[in-house]
């Protein structure tokens, strides 16, 4: 009886922590079932995120991107990271070479590919963190409160979302100083390494 209870408890714990593998869509991008599918009208998405008590994050990816694969299969597969982002952010995926229409915050309508060029995006994944309110007179890249260019390990990736959610961009402490301070607090004064 005790052995069955222990086995069942271990099985349930393992299932609760296991993340479903992100599927690959027809466009070659990993698809998270908790990402939001929208009409890609960014100001409308900012409003929808706010109505849900969340912040809007736009993630640009491309087919064959090894760093995008790592983000989905390693970083977002971690329940701590995935659950925090899902609870606090509405994430909309963009294809750097895609043809879906996007309505920028300045009202210009372009394809995903053209908007990526307009915003001068060079790396995937790139995440744009949008302000809490719709924007007028600026494009989304100008209006973004923070941009994460490229893939990072779990700790840095998660801390960037925490920093944005807590409006760290409004304070005097930039993200890198914030991250280093948080690391030292968690690790008894030790400095972070490239592996973190």
Q: What's a concise summary of this model?
A:
The protein has 196 residues and is α+β, with helices and mostly antiparallel strands. It contains 8 helices and 8 strands; from the N terminus they run αββαβααβββαβαβαα. It has one domain: Glutaredoxin.
What does this structure look like?
The protein is of the alpha+beta class and 196 residues long. The chain has a single domain, classed as Glutaredoxin, CATH 3.40.30.10. The protein has helices at 2-17, 42-51, 66-75, 79-88, 112-118, 140-143, 154-165, 175-186; strands at 23-24, 30-31, 55-61, 89-95, 101-103, 109-111, 126-129, 146-149. The chain has a four-stranded mixed beta sheet with strand order 4-3-7-8, with helices on both faces. The chain is globular. The termini are far apart.
* Overall strand count: 8
Radius of gyration, Cα only, in angstroms? 18 Å
Q: Would you list the SSEs in sequence order as H and E?
A: HEEHEHHEEEHEHEHH
- CATH-defined superfamily: Glutaredoxin
Number of helices: 8
Mean pLDDT: 89
Distance between the termini: 43 Å
- Uncertain ranges: 1-18
CATH topology: Glutaredoxin
Assembly status: single chain
User: Overall 3D geometry?
Assistant: globular
Largest sheet: 4 strands, mixed
Number of domains: 1
């Amino acid at each position: 009886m005790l052995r069955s209870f222990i086995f069942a408890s271990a099985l349930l714990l393992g299932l609760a922590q296991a993340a479903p593998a992100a599927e690959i869509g027809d466009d070659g991008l990993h698809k998270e079932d908790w990402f939001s599918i929208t009409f890609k009208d960014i100001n409308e998405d900012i409003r929808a995120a706010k109505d849900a008590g969340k912040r809007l994050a736009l993630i640009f990816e491309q087919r064959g991107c090894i760093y995008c694969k790592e983000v989905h299969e390693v970083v977002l597969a971690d329940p701590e990271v995935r659950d925090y982002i899902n609870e606090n952010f509405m994430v909309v995926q963009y294809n750097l070479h895609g043809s879906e229409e996007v309505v920028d915050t300045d009202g210009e309508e372009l394809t995903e590919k053209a908007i990526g060029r307009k915003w001068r995006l060079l790396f995937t994944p790139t995440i744009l963190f949008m302000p809490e309110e719709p924007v007028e007179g600026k494009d989304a890249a100008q209006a973004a409160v923070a941009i994460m260019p490229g893939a990072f390990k779990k700790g840095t990736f998660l801390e960037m979302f925490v920093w944005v959610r807590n409006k760290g961009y409004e304070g005097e402490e930039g993200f890198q100083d914030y991250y280093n301070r948080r690391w030292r607090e968690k690790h008894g004064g030790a400095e972070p390494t490239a592996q973190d």
